[in-house]
Amino acid sequence: MNQKQIFVLSFFILLILIFLQLVGVFHLFLTPILWAVILTMVFYPLYERCLKWVKGRRNLASAMVTLFVVIVTTGPMVFFSGTLVKEVLQFYQDVGQWVSSGRYESLVGNLLHSPLRSVWEKILEKTSSLDIQIIPLLAKTAQSISQSIVNQIQSGAKNFLVFVINYWIAIFIFFFFLRDGEFLGRGLKDIFPMTLENKEKMFGRLSVTVSAVVRGLVVTAVVQAVLAGIAFLVLGVPFPVFLSFLVAFLAIVPIGGAVVVWLPSAIYLGLSGSWSKAIILFFWCALVVSTIDNIIKPLLIGDKTKIPTLFLFLAILGGLAYYGFIGVFLGPIFLSLFMTLIEIYRKEYKNT
Fold it and tell me: Quick one: how far is CA 150 from the chain centroid?
Protein backbone atom coordinates (compact mmCIF):
# COMPACT_ATOMS: atom_id res chain seq x y z
CA MET A 1 0.00 0.00 0.00
CA ASN A 2 1.55 3.28 -1.11
CA GLN A 3 1.41 6.60 0.69
CA LYS A 4 -1.54 7.92 -1.32
CA GLN A 5 -3.66 4.82 -0.58
CA ILE A 6 -2.82 5.10 3.13
CA PHE A 7 -3.90 8.74 3.06
CA VAL A 8 -7.22 7.92 1.32
CA LEU A 9 -7.92 5.06 3.75
CA SER A 10 -7.13 7.24 6.76
CA PHE A 11 -9.29 10.03 5.41
CA PHE A 12 -12.37 7.80 4.99
CA ILE A 13 -11.87 6.16 8.40
CA LEU A 14 -11.75 9.61 9.99
CA LEU A 15 -14.78 10.71 7.97
CA ILE A 16 -16.81 7.69 9.09
CA LEU A 17 -15.82 8.12 12.75
CA ILE A 18 -16.81 11.79 12.75
CA PHE A 19 -20.05 10.98 10.92
CA LEU A 20 -20.96 8.40 13.59
CA GLN A 21 -20.31 10.99 16.30
CA LEU A 22 -22.56 13.46 14.49
CA VAL A 23 -25.30 10.84 14.33
CA GLY A 24 -25.16 10.68 18.12
CA VAL A 25 -25.12 14.48 18.43
CA PHE A 26 -28.15 14.97 16.16
CA HIS A 27 -30.03 11.86 17.28
CA LEU A 28 -32.52 13.80 19.43
CA PHE A 29 -33.33 16.06 16.49
CA LEU A 30 -33.61 13.34 13.84
CA THR A 31 -37.42 13.27 13.73
CA PRO A 32 -37.80 17.09 13.52
CA ILE A 33 -35.11 17.19 10.82
CA LEU A 34 -36.93 14.53 8.77
CA TRP A 35 -40.23 16.40 9.10
CA ALA A 36 -38.48 19.62 8.07
CA VAL A 37 -37.01 17.89 5.00
CA ILE A 38 -40.43 16.57 4.00
CA LEU A 39 -42.08 19.98 4.49
CA THR A 40 -39.32 21.65 2.50
CA MET A 41 -39.77 19.36 -0.48
CA VAL A 42 -43.52 19.86 -0.43
CA PHE A 43 -43.54 23.64 -0.03
CA TYR A 44 -40.38 24.58 -1.92
CA PRO A 45 -42.32 25.41 -5.13
CA LEU A 46 -44.44 27.83 -3.06
CA TYR A 47 -41.24 29.33 -1.64
CA GLU A 48 -39.88 29.88 -5.16
CA ARG A 49 -43.07 31.74 -6.11
CA CYS A 50 -42.87 33.88 -2.98
CA LEU A 51 -39.22 34.56 -3.75
CA LYS A 52 -40.25 36.06 -7.09
CA TRP A 53 -42.99 38.15 -5.45
CA VAL A 54 -40.59 39.66 -2.90
CA LYS A 55 -37.84 40.17 -5.52
CA GLY A 56 -35.30 37.69 -4.22
CA ARG A 57 -35.44 38.46 -0.48
CA ARG A 58 -34.88 34.96 0.89
CA ASN A 59 -35.55 35.68 4.56
CA LEU A 60 -38.89 37.29 3.80
CA ALA A 61 -39.96 34.52 1.41
CA SER A 62 -38.97 31.83 3.93
CA ALA A 63 -40.83 33.64 6.71
CA MET A 64 -43.98 33.92 4.60
CA VAL A 65 -44.05 30.21 3.73
CA THR A 66 -43.15 29.19 7.30
CA LEU A 67 -45.98 31.33 8.69
CA PHE A 68 -48.38 29.78 6.17
CA VAL A 69 -47.38 26.25 7.27
CA VAL A 70 -47.77 27.16 10.96
CA ILE A 71 -51.28 28.52 10.34
CA VAL A 72 -52.31 25.51 8.25
CA THR A 73 -51.01 22.95 10.78
CA THR A 74 -51.85 24.60 14.11
CA GLY A 75 -55.19 26.12 13.09
CA PRO A 76 -57.17 22.87 12.74
CA MET A 77 -55.18 21.37 15.62
CA VAL A 78 -56.28 24.10 18.03
CA PHE A 79 -59.84 24.24 16.70
CA PHE A 80 -60.57 20.50 16.89
CA SER A 81 -58.39 19.29 19.77
CA GLY A 82 -60.76 20.36 22.57
CA THR A 83 -63.85 18.92 20.89
CA LEU A 84 -62.01 15.75 19.92
CA VAL A 85 -60.77 15.02 23.45
CA LYS A 86 -64.24 15.67 24.88
CA GLU A 87 -65.86 13.32 22.38
CA VAL A 88 -63.27 10.57 22.99
CA LEU A 89 -63.74 10.71 26.76
CA GLN A 90 -67.52 10.83 26.39
CA PHE A 91 -67.36 7.90 23.97
CA TYR A 92 -65.45 5.83 26.50
CA GLN A 93 -67.88 6.71 29.30
CA ASP A 94 -70.93 5.93 27.16
CA VAL A 95 -69.53 2.56 26.07
CA GLY A 96 -68.75 1.69 29.71
CA GLN A 97 -72.29 2.57 30.80
CA TRP A 98 -73.71 0.83 27.75
CA VAL A 99 -71.95 -2.41 28.69
CA SER A 100 -72.46 -2.27 32.47
CA SER A 101 -76.17 -1.45 32.22
CA GLY A 102 -76.82 -4.16 29.65
CA ARG A 103 -78.32 -1.71 27.17
CA TYR A 104 -76.38 -3.39 24.39
CA GLU A 105 -78.70 -6.39 24.74
CA SER A 106 -81.77 -4.32 23.84
CA LEU A 107 -79.89 -2.73 20.94
CA VAL A 108 -78.84 -6.13 19.64
CA GLY A 109 -82.38 -7.33 20.21
CA ASN A 110 -83.56 -4.79 17.68
CA LEU A 111 -81.85 -6.92 15.05
CA LEU A 112 -84.66 -9.44 15.39
CA HIS A 113 -87.08 -6.79 14.11
CA SER A 114 -84.85 -5.31 11.43
CA PRO A 115 -84.03 -6.05 7.77
CA LEU A 116 -80.80 -7.67 9.03
CA ARG A 117 -82.65 -10.34 10.97
CA SER A 118 -81.78 -13.21 8.62
CA VAL A 119 -78.11 -12.22 8.54
CA TRP A 120 -77.98 -11.94 12.34
CA GLU A 121 -79.63 -15.34 12.81
CA LYS A 122 -77.04 -16.98 10.55
CA ILE A 123 -74.23 -15.33 12.51
CA LEU A 124 -75.70 -16.56 15.82
CA GLU A 125 -76.14 -20.04 14.39
CA LYS A 126 -72.51 -20.27 13.23
CA THR A 127 -71.04 -18.80 16.43
CA SER A 128 -73.22 -20.97 18.67
CA SER A 129 -71.96 -24.10 16.95
CA LEU A 130 -68.41 -22.95 17.80
CA ASP A 131 -69.42 -22.19 21.41
CA ILE A 132 -68.83 -18.45 20.93
CA GLN A 133 -71.04 -15.98 22.79
CA ILE A 134 -71.17 -13.30 20.15
CA ILE A 135 -73.10 -10.60 22.06
CA PRO A 136 -70.84 -10.43 25.17
CA LEU A 137 -67.84 -10.70 22.85
CA LEU A 138 -68.95 -7.66 20.84
CA ALA A 139 -69.55 -5.70 24.02
CA LYS A 140 -66.12 -6.54 25.42
CA THR A 141 -64.51 -5.68 22.09
CA ALA A 142 -66.18 -2.27 21.99
CA GLN A 143 -65.10 -1.56 25.55
CA SER A 144 -61.52 -2.68 24.86
CA ILE A 145 -61.31 -0.47 21.75
CA SER A 146 -62.59 2.55 23.64
CA GLN A 147 -60.13 1.88 26.49
CA SER A 148 -57.28 1.62 24.00
CA ILE A 149 -58.25 4.93 22.41
CA VAL A 150 -58.39 6.67 25.79
CA ASN A 151 -55.00 5.21 26.74
CA GLN A 152 -53.52 6.59 23.52
CA ILE A 153 -55.02 10.01 24.27
CA GLN A 154 -53.60 9.94 27.80
CA SER A 155 -50.21 8.85 26.52
CA GLY A 156 -50.29 11.62 23.94
CA ALA A 157 -51.17 14.15 26.65
CA LYS A 158 -48.16 13.08 28.72
CA ASN A 159 -45.89 13.51 25.70
CA PHE A 160 -47.56 16.73 24.58
CA LEU A 161 -44.64 18.89 25.69
CA VAL A 162 -42.22 16.74 23.68
CA PHE A 163 -44.51 16.99 20.67
CA VAL A 164 -44.70 20.79 20.94
CA ILE A 165 -40.92 21.11 21.26
CA ASN A 166 -40.32 18.81 18.27
CA TYR A 167 -42.91 20.70 16.25
CA TRP A 168 -41.25 24.08 16.77
CA ILE A 169 -37.79 22.63 16.19
CA ALA A 170 -39.06 21.24 12.87
CA ILE A 171 -40.56 24.62 11.96
CA PHE A 172 -37.30 26.39 12.89
CA ILE A 173 -35.26 23.98 10.74
CA PHE A 174 -37.85 24.25 7.97
CA PHE A 175 -37.27 28.02 7.75
CA PHE A 176 -33.54 27.58 7.18
CA PHE A 177 -34.00 24.65 4.79
CA LEU A 178 -36.20 26.89 2.67
CA ARG A 179 -33.84 29.85 2.80
CA ASP A 180 -30.68 27.84 2.17
CA GLY A 181 -32.27 24.99 0.23
CA GLU A 182 -30.55 25.74 -3.04
CA PHE A 183 -27.11 25.84 -1.41
CA LEU A 184 -27.74 22.71 0.69
CA GLY A 185 -29.13 20.79 -2.28
CA ARG A 186 -26.16 21.68 -4.47
CA GLY A 187 -23.73 20.61 -1.73
CA LEU A 188 -25.57 17.32 -1.22
CA LYS A 189 -25.50 16.58 -4.93
CA ASP A 190 -21.75 17.14 -5.08
CA ILE A 191 -21.20 14.33 -2.55
CA PHE A 192 -22.76 11.61 -4.68
CA PRO A 193 -20.33 9.82 -7.05
CA MET A 194 -22.63 9.91 -10.06
CA THR A 195 -22.88 11.69 -13.34
CA LEU A 196 -24.76 14.98 -13.30
CA GLU A 197 -27.60 13.41 -15.30
CA ASN A 198 -28.08 10.61 -12.78
CA LYS A 199 -27.89 13.01 -9.85
CA GLU A 200 -30.60 15.17 -11.37
CA LYS A 201 -32.70 12.10 -12.05
CA MET A 202 -32.41 10.80 -8.48
CA PHE A 203 -33.07 14.12 -6.76
CA GLY A 204 -35.87 14.91 -9.19
CA ARG A 205 -37.51 11.57 -8.44
CA LEU A 206 -37.10 12.20 -4.70
CA SER A 207 -38.76 15.61 -4.90
CA VAL A 208 -41.67 14.31 -6.98
CA THR A 209 -42.20 11.32 -4.68
CA VAL A 210 -42.23 13.33 -1.45
CA SER A 211 -44.62 15.94 -2.85
CA ALA A 212 -46.93 13.35 -4.40
CA VAL A 213 -47.06 11.07 -1.34
CA VAL A 214 -47.61 13.87 1.17
CA ARG A 215 -50.18 15.68 -0.94
CA GLY A 216 -51.92 12.46 -1.94
CA LEU A 217 -52.25 11.09 1.59
CA VAL A 218 -53.12 14.39 3.23
CA VAL A 219 -55.63 15.46 0.57
CA THR A 220 -57.29 12.03 0.64
CA ALA A 221 -57.52 12.08 4.44
CA VAL A 222 -58.99 15.59 4.54
CA VAL A 223 -61.51 15.01 1.76
CA GLN A 224 -62.73 11.70 3.18
CA ALA A 225 -62.93 13.10 6.72
CA VAL A 226 -64.90 16.16 5.58
CA LEU A 227 -67.32 14.15 3.42
CA ALA A 228 -67.90 11.57 6.15
CA GLY A 229 -68.07 14.24 8.88
CA ILE A 230 -70.79 16.14 7.04
CA ALA A 231 -72.83 12.95 6.78
CA PHE A 232 -72.28 12.08 10.45
CA LEU A 233 -73.35 15.57 11.53
CA VAL A 234 -76.39 15.85 9.28
CA LEU A 235 -77.67 12.35 10.03
CA GLY A 236 -77.17 12.64 13.79
CA VAL A 237 -74.41 10.08 14.29
CA PRO A 238 -72.91 10.51 17.79
CA PHE A 239 -69.34 11.85 18.13
CA PRO A 240 -69.01 13.21 14.56
CA VAL A 241 -65.61 14.92 15.14
CA PHE A 242 -64.11 11.81 16.71
CA LEU A 243 -65.40 9.56 13.92
CA SER A 244 -64.16 12.01 11.28
CA PHE A 245 -60.73 11.92 12.91
CA LEU A 246 -60.74 8.12 12.67
CA VAL A 247 -61.71 8.33 9.00
CA ALA A 248 -58.79 10.71 8.35
CA PHE A 249 -56.35 8.48 10.22
CA LEU A 250 -57.44 5.34 8.39
CA ALA A 251 -57.18 7.20 5.09
CA ILE A 252 -53.49 7.90 5.79
CA VAL A 253 -52.82 4.46 7.27
CA PRO A 254 -54.46 2.06 4.79
CA ILE A 255 -55.71 -0.57 7.25
CA GLY A 256 -59.34 -1.30 6.53
CA GLY A 257 -60.09 2.20 5.29
CA ALA A 258 -63.00 4.48 6.10
CA VAL A 259 -65.46 1.58 5.91
CA VAL A 260 -64.28 0.46 9.36
CA VAL A 261 -65.85 3.66 10.72
CA TRP A 262 -68.88 4.39 8.61
CA LEU A 263 -70.28 0.86 8.32
CA PRO A 264 -70.69 0.37 12.11
CA SER A 265 -72.12 3.91 12.26
CA ALA A 266 -74.73 3.01 9.65
CA ILE A 267 -75.60 -0.20 11.51
CA TYR A 268 -75.91 1.77 14.75
CA LEU A 269 -78.37 4.19 13.13
CA GLY A 270 -80.39 1.29 11.81
CA LEU A 271 -80.55 -0.52 15.14
CA SER A 272 -81.55 2.74 16.81
CA GLY A 273 -84.63 2.81 14.60
CA SER A 274 -83.41 5.22 11.90
CA TRP A 275 -83.15 2.84 8.96
CA SER A 276 -83.73 5.61 6.42
CA LYS A 277 -80.74 7.52 7.80
CA ALA A 278 -78.71 4.32 7.93
CA ILE A 279 -79.40 3.62 4.26
CA ILE A 280 -78.51 7.20 3.28
CA LEU A 281 -75.24 7.02 5.25
CA PHE A 282 -74.39 3.63 3.78
CA PHE A 283 -74.84 4.67 0.15
CA TRP A 284 -73.23 8.09 0.63
CA CYS A 285 -70.12 6.58 2.20
CA ALA A 286 -69.97 3.55 -0.10
CA LEU A 287 -70.41 5.52 -3.31
CA VAL A 288 -68.65 8.78 -2.39
CA VAL A 289 -66.43 8.62 0.70
CA SER A 290 -64.74 5.29 0.01
CA THR A 291 -64.73 5.73 -3.77
CA ILE A 292 -62.95 9.10 -3.69
CA ASP A 293 -59.94 7.30 -2.21
CA ASN A 294 -59.53 5.33 -5.42
CA ILE A 295 -59.57 8.53 -7.45
CA ILE A 296 -57.32 10.87 -5.46
CA LYS A 297 -54.50 8.53 -4.47
CA PRO A 298 -53.74 7.11 -7.93
CA LEU A 299 -54.07 10.61 -9.39
CA LEU A 300 -51.69 12.29 -6.93
CA ILE A 301 -49.39 9.41 -5.99
CA GLY A 302 -49.31 6.44 -8.33
CA ASP A 303 -49.20 8.22 -11.67
CA LYS A 304 -46.47 10.64 -10.58
CA THR A 305 -44.21 8.34 -8.57
CA LYS A 306 -44.59 5.36 -10.95
CA ILE A 307 -44.78 3.08 -7.89
CA PRO A 308 -47.08 0.06 -8.31
CA THR A 309 -50.11 0.25 -6.01
CA LEU A 310 -49.26 -2.99 -4.17
CA PHE A 311 -45.71 -1.90 -3.36
CA LEU A 312 -46.92 1.56 -2.37
CA PHE A 313 -49.39 -0.03 0.06
CA LEU A 314 -46.70 -2.28 1.56
CA ALA A 315 -44.21 0.60 1.77
CA ILE A 316 -46.68 2.71 3.74
CA LEU A 317 -47.52 -0.09 6.19
CA GLY A 318 -43.90 -1.22 6.53
CA GLY A 319 -42.70 2.35 7.06
CA LEU A 320 -45.36 2.89 9.71
CA ALA A 321 -44.30 -0.25 11.59
CA TYR A 322 -40.58 0.51 11.38
CA TYR A 323 -40.35 4.30 11.81
CA GLY A 324 -43.64 5.23 13.44
CA PHE A 325 -46.04 7.73 11.91
CA ILE A 326 -43.35 9.50 9.87
CA GLY A 327 -42.69 6.13 8.21
CA VAL A 328 -45.96 6.56 6.31
CA PHE A 329 -44.02 9.03 4.18
CA LEU A 330 -40.50 7.60 4.51
CA GLY A 331 -41.50 4.13 3.25
CA PRO A 332 -42.61 5.30 -0.23
CA ILE A 333 -39.65 7.73 -0.39
CA PHE A 334 -37.08 5.00 0.20
CA LEU A 335 -38.88 2.68 -2.22
CA SER A 336 -38.84 5.37 -4.91
CA LEU A 337 -35.12 6.04 -4.37
CA PHE A 338 -34.40 2.32 -4.58
CA MET A 339 -36.30 2.03 -7.85
CA THR A 340 -34.40 5.04 -9.22
CA LEU A 341 -31.03 3.53 -8.28
CA ILE A 342 -32.05 0.26 -9.97
CA GLU A 343 -32.87 2.21 -13.13
CA ILE A 344 -29.49 3.96 -12.99
CA TYR A 345 -27.72 0.64 -12.49
CA ARG A 346 -29.50 -0.96 -15.44
CA LYS A 347 -28.59 2.00 -17.62
CA GLU A 348 -25.00 2.65 -16.54
CA TYR A 349 -23.51 -0.41 -14.90
CA LYS A 350 -25.30 -3.52 -16.09
CA ASN A 351 -22.84 -4.31 -18.88
CA THR A 352 -19.67 -3.14 -17.13
Answer: 20
